[in-house]
């Protein structure tokens, strides 16, 4: 009894020792993550600006920025463009194409996997601005795609003007598909081959093996990849800005582009931070939806 009493302070100290090792990480997270979010949240309720009278005196204006945001038709257009871009390039494009490439590489020899993997990874490891310039040259009026089309006797198409949203969706698919491919490749490699062989012996077709064995087995990887790709796509800025600048007009103005224009072109930082919190809210809602689907 006495030994337990003597050892209890020492045991208590050991219980909280792990906290001392976490303090540097907690401090860094508070300084570089929590503090900027709180500061952004505060600035969204102010008239913060880079020029003009508002730049001289910072004032708390309450919900004026949010009222203006929800009454601004340009915000609704940007939200709609963001959802189209997100659905086309992330939910459909990267997810489906990444899975198909990974499925194509399943059970193939090492040489085939290396060649295909290297080709697909080239778009992912290339910096975003370099990818944007390459794809701008590909879809431009005098670009590679029009050169291919005209070689078959077809007329040129002004892709960046006629179908600008399609061009940035295809560009983002090319730039980000490799990430989904790697996730699905690892998931497919974990599917036990014995289950597939048993299904083949029982007379199952390839489609039945895919829909009744493979997809249910990797459903957690599908949901996780969907969430990661969605959050990554929501923040795409450089690719769109370098290719179209949000135009022509507002046809490719997504929320990151609109936020940048308001904050650094129109110098309305308070309004720009309010728009950034709207983008953050969309990301949180979609993340909660994906987490709920995993359960």
UniProtKB/TrEMBL annotation:
GO biological process, alphabetically ordered: transmembrane transport
Gene Ontology CC annotation, any one: plasma membrane
Keywords: Cell membrane, Membrane, Transmembrane, Transmembrane helix, Transport
Superkingdom, taxonomy of origin: Bacteria
The UniProt record lists the keyword tRNA processing: no
Residues covered by the ABC transmembrane type-1 domain: 80-290
Coiled coil ranges: none
Classification via Pfam families: BPD_transp_1
Name recorded for this polypeptide: Sugar ABC transporter permease
Species of origin: Paenibacillus roseus
């Amino acid at each position: 009894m006495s030994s337990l009493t003597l050892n209890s302070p020492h045991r208590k100290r050991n219980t909280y020792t792990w906290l001392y090792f976490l303090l540097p990480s907690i401090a860094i997270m508070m300084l570089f993550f929590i503090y900027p979010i709180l500061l952004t949240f505060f600035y969204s309720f102010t008239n913060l600006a880079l020029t003009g009278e508002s730049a001289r005196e910072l004032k708390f204006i309450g919900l004026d920025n949010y009222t203006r945001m929800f009454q601004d038709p340009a915000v609704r257009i940007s939200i709609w463009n963001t959802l189209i871009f997100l659905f086309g390039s992330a939910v459909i494009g990267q997810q489906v194409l990444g899975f198909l490439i990974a499925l194509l590489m399943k059970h193939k020899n090492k040489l085939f996997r290396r060649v295909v993997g290297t080709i697909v990874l080239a778009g992912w490891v290339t910096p975003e601005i370099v990818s944007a310039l390459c794809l701008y040259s590909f879809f431009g009026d005098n670009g590679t795609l029009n050169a291919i089309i005209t070689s078959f006797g077809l007329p040129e198409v002004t892709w960046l003007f006629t179908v600008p949203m399609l061009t940035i969706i295809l560009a983002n698919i090319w730039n980000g598909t490799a990430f989904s491919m790697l996730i699905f490749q690892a998931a497919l490699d974990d599917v036990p081959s014995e289950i597939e062989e048993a299904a083949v012996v029982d007379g199952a077709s390839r489609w039945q093996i895919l829909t009744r064995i493979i997809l249910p087995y990797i459903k957690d990887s599908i949901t996780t990849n969907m969430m990661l790709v969605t959050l990554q796509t929501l923040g795409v800025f450089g690719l769109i800005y370098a290719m179209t600048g949000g135009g022509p007009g507002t046809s490719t103005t997504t929320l990151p582009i609109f936020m940048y224009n308001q904050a650094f072109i129109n110098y309305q930082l308070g309004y720009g931070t309010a728009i950034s919190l709207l983008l953050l809210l969309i990301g949180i809602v979609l993340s909660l939806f994906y987490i709920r689907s995993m359960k």
